[in-house]
Amino acid sequence: MEPITREELEKIKKDAKAAGKDVSDIEKLLEQKEMPKPPMGEVKVTGVTRDVWMRMEEKSEKTKVKGKRVIMSTGPAREEDFE
Amino acid sequence: MINLVDEAGALSTEEFHELKNFVVDECLCTQVETPWLEYVKIRADGDTGYKGYWTAQWDEVGLDKRNVKAVIILNATYLKTLEDMKKTLAHEFGHHWTLGYMIENFEQDIWKERMPLDYYRMRGLDLDNFAPDYSKDWYHCDKEVLAEDYKYFYSPFDGEHRMKNLVGNPSEEIKAKIVDLGLGARRSWEELVRCRFSKSK
After folding, report:
1. How far, in whole angstroms, is CA B39 from its chain's centroid?
2. Is residue B201 over pLDDT 50?
């Protein structure tokens, strides 16, 4: 994760303007007193069920087993990032 | 080549192809960890405070870990030029280089385990002021220092390090250590598996 600083945003505005890009949204962001604090290192764990083949005495059988789905992020942990 | 999705419509066709090839053409990567990266997505996430982030997902059943995949998000709300996107992508791929191998090979909880102590020693990080997570802030997270070290040595943004005023620029010793922490970790793991396999024969 890379946080943004006010100084960087000012430089981005300058570079974007020089490249002929619209910077009105950045100008609005720079009017804020403080830069927002980004989410850092979020982890999300949810339950999942998986079909696995289990070897029984005479044959193999498909069985449902419970496990977990882990999302580990340097920023926010979002399920929609993997959809 | 990485899978790039420009959801924000921020890039021209030419810029899109340049960014798509950026990691393979200009950064340190191999055919091992690059396919773990599901995609890089450019998205206007709004005024969130981040320029981009690296995230990974996997399923665990007992000790079995499957379907490991990683994603890099670039926030087009702040990143307006191709150059800025490349810079953030170089940092985030730095995370992918080390954390991808850590998760895939050693199943470590990356926010609980510090980077190896010899990295701390070589980099001059002290254990009281640097943490494996963000508990001491972004600048004092060992993974963030390392991602900046990667960008410093293995991207066109050499000489640029966000923790320069805090810990100085990385030494040449760190350059080799970065390879060791990524692909080197994979080799060590493969050797360990080979060693165990030959002993069990």
Report:
1. 14
2. no
Q: Distance from B134 to chain A by nearest Cα, in Å?
A: 7
Which segment, B57-66, B136-145, B154-163, is predicted with the most confidence on average? B136-145
Task: Indicate yes or no: CB of A71 within 8 angstroms of CB of B56.
Answer: yes
Task: Give the ipTM.
Answer: 0.89
Residues spanned by the domain of A59: 43-82
Q: Give the CA distances from residue A30 to residues A5, A16, B43, in Å, rounded to whole numbers and listed in that order.
A: 10, 14, 20
Domain count, chain B: 1
Name the average pLDDT for chain A. 90
Would the CB atoms of A38 and B50 count as touching at under 8 Å?
yes
| CA atoms of A43 and B97, how far apart (whole Å) | 19
Q: Does A54 touch chain B (CB under 8 A)?
A: no
Q: What is the pLDDT of residues B144-160, one digit of tens each?
A: 999 999 999 999 998 88
Number of domains observed in the structure of chain A: 2
Question: Is residue B55 classed exposed, middle or buried when 0-12, 13-18 and 19+ CB atoms within 10 A define those classes?
Answer: buried
pLDDT tens for each residue of A47-69: 988 877 777 777 788 888 889 99
- Are A33 and A48 in the same domain? no
- Contact residues on chain A for B144, CB-CB shorter than 8 A: 1, 74
C-alpha separations of A63 from A50, A54, A66 in Å: 8, 6, 10
Percent with pLDDT over 90 in chain A: 54
Q: Which of B54, B169, B87, B156 is nearest to B123 (CA)?
A: B169
Q: Give the domain range for residue B15.
A: 4-200
Dihedral pair phi/psi, residue B146, rounded to 5°: -65, -40
Does A59 share its domain with A75? Answer: yes
